[in-house]
Amino acid sequence: MVRLAIAGGNIGGSARIPLLRGDPNTELVGIYEKKQDAPGVILAKKWNIPVFEDVKALSTTNPEMIINVTGDPKLSNEIRLAFGKLKRP
To answer: Is 50 a residue whose pLDDT tops 90?
Structure first.
């Protein structure tokens, strides 16, 4: 089973949450989203999936993979930094 997190709770995240939640080979361990009224956040809360407003806090769930659906490439680097996969320049 793959422990997975999603970065982004708007349209991209809200479309993937039901798919991944229903996959028997995936454990959805958390969602990262700053806007608490985003559609993905509402879905996650409905299904008791933890929601985080801080990338560092998301790292406490120990996901094996994070899918960044925000469209923000800078967030990918922020995630790498938070998980110790990238060094600060």
So the answer is: yes
